[in-house]
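Q: What residues go here?
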């Protein structure tokens, strides 16, 4: 029998390894930036083109490499970070696997320029598909520049399954933010298609957060800090009132390495459970300092999942630290059980002297003596003579109320009720079954439903779902006709977004403009809103766009299927009238009429029923 097991060629083995480490362009960004940080650089520049498909370049001013080190860095399992297995339990650096450059070279063209500070000339090296094609000395700046071109050029299937440029750019921005956040001591520059997205200067952790996510974040942050023998905790928590409906700004760093951990997420959420609005998630930027021997970061190729030696203790400490921080800064309500409430006395605002109140008592007063009581009352009202006049003018003989009227004395009760005629049963039935003109009667129930009568049937309409259906078909028609004119705002609204949100908004700008939302780019991650559809001019333009982006994040899969349909759904869901809002009769009548003019009035865009009804027969069955 012939042998069937063979060693794979190095090129194939490298491509298989690359499939675990390099999943998309963002993976390349992460590996190169982490290597630049390990080099001791004070400035790191990231340059990408076409969402990383054409170019990913990272330039640093770190220590640089010798000719031998530059050549060895492209070999598999070649690293300067560890020498033996024991070093894995005392790691303080990031790129320790030694697979980053080898994996990248297996699926792309890589060009490296590097020079140490003490060397006069640097070294230029080109590697194409794990094959070195160029080696030569070169004059270059101190540090290292690595340019990755034509990613996945030799794996067409992997390149084919990359997402759109917008999606891939957002992933790159996410990786850039994770690395830049935890290293505020380093200058970072990010250039996308020759446009500067970020220029982050050295500062502290809070300044770096504000630089990345915007100035509005400064007022949303609450410091957190705790130092124990098990873990050191520092960073910031977002105030509960600024919680979002998506898991956006949630960052955990362990020993300056970004991680994902649902167990620790639960510790933060449970500490803020009573303070968060329903279905929202808190924002936090938390650093954990733990003995490297107590964590294992070598369980996943991306190194974002780690194991803790004492996870339960870290959970308890983190939860307690969160509660303490919220109480310390008066975020969470608290009761002071040590305060003595019996000493809480009223303090007058004026400086007038305090006088003891005087009580006047009539010792001989007998409340059961009618003559004495009447005299006392007349004395109390002596200053107002109108009381006696009113008493004389409005004298009532209360006994007359209990006397039987003369006409009732003369007639029999049976004769009186015998004169009343009742409708016959068939007349009542006819009144119910008689067709009523459409929507002659509307009423709001519980500020959530509209009750109306149509063709003898009682309808209960869900006001929010009905409005969603009306708006959805309105926006769909607007995009098909492309004739929805916008009403220009008296004062255009400007909105500044973080880079990831800006990329998302850019991807739907043409569709928004077709709907009548006149919005355009205005500088780096800035936009200006000039107008809204005539029917939506009363809305807050800035809040409208921010809520729309949140809806896109929550329902991210919808935009992948049909961008126009997803936009119409999200926009109608966002601006539809909410449950609990009081509506006037004219508003309810108009909404009901518009609903039944829709193509599918019975369901909202999400497929839920908009109304149900009772017929006369069903009501009679209920009544028995």
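A:
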């Amino acid at each position: 029998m012939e042998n069937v097991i063979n060693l794979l060629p190095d090129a194939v083995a490298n491509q298989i390894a690359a499939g675990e480490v390099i999943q998309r362009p963002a993976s390349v960004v992460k590996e190169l930036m982490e290597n630049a940080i390990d080099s001791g650089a004070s400035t790191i520049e990231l340059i990408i083109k076409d969402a990383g498909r054409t170019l990913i370049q990272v330039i640093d001013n770190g220590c640089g490499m010798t000719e031998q080190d530059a050549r060895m860095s492209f070999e598999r399992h070649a690293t300067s970070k560890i020498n033996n297995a024991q070093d894995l339990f005392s790691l303080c650096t990031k790129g320790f696997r030694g697979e980053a450059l080898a994996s990248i070279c297996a699926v792309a063209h890589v060009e490296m320029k590097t020079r140490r500070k003490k060397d006069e000339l640097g070294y230029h090296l080109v590697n194409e598909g794990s094959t070195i094609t160029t080696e030569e000395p070169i004059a270059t700046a101190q540090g290292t520049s690595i340019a990755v071109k034509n990613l996945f050029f030799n794996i067409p299937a992997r390149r084919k399954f990359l997402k759109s440029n917008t999606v891939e750019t957002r992933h790159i921005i996410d990786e850039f933010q994770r690395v830049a956040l935890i290293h505020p001591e380093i200058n970072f520059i990010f250039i996308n298609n020759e446009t500067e997205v970020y220029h982050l200067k050295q500062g502290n952790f809070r300044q770096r957060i504000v630089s990345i996510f915007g100035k509005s974040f400064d007022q949303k942050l609450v410091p957190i800090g705790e130092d124990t023998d098990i873990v050191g905790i520092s960073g910031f928590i977002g105030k509960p009132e600024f919680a979002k409906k998506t898991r956006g700004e949630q960052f955990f760093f362990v020993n300056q390495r970004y991680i994902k951990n649902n167990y620790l997420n639960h510790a933060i959420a449970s500490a803020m459970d009573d303070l968060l609005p329903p279905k929202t998630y808190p924002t936090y930027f938390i650093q954990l300092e733990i003995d490297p021997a107590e964590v294992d970061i070598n369980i996943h190729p991306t190194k974002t999942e780690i194991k803790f030696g004492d996870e339960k203790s870290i959970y308890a400490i983190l939860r307690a630290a969160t509660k303490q921080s919220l109480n310390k800064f008066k975020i969470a309500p608290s009761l002071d059980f040590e305060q003595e409430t019996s000493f809480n006395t009223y303090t007058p605002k004026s400086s007038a002297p305090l006088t003891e109140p005087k009580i006047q008592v009539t010792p001989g007063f007998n409340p059961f003596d009618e003559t004495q009581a009447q005299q006392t009352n007349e004395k109390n009202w002596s200053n107002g003579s109108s009381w006696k006049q009113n008493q004389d003018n409005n004298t009532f003989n209360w006994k007359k109320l209990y006397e039987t009227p003369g006409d009732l004395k003369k007639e029999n009760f049976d004769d009186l009720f015998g004169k009343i005629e009742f409708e016959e049963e068939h007349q009542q039935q006819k009144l119910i079954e008689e067709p009523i003109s459409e929507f002659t009667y509307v009423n709001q129930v519980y500020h959530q439903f509209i009750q109306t009568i149509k063709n003898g049937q009682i309808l209960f309409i869900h006001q929010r779902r009905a409005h969603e259906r009306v708006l959805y078909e309105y926006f769909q028609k607007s995009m098909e006709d492309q004739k929805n004119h916008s009403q220009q705002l008296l004062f255009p609204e400007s909105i500044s977004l973080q880079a990831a949100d800006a990329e998302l908004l850019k991807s739907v700008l043409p569709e928004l403009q077709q709907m009548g939302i006149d919005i355009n780019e205005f500088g780096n991650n800035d936009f200006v809103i000039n107008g809204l559809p005539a029917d939506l001019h009363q809305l807050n333009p800035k809040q409208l766009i921010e809520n729309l982006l949140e809806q896109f994040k929550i329902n991210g899969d919808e935009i992948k299927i049909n961008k126009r349909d997803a936009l119409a759904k999200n926009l109608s869901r966002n601006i539809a009238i909410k449950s609990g809002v009081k509506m006037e009769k004219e508003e309810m009548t108009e909404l009901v009429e518009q609903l039944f003019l829709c193509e599918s009035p019975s369901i909202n865009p999400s497929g839920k029923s908009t109304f149900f009804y009772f017929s006369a027969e069903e009501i009679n069955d209920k009544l028995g």
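A: Context that may help when evaluating the design: The chain is about 35% helix and 20% strand. The first helix runs from residue 10 to 21.
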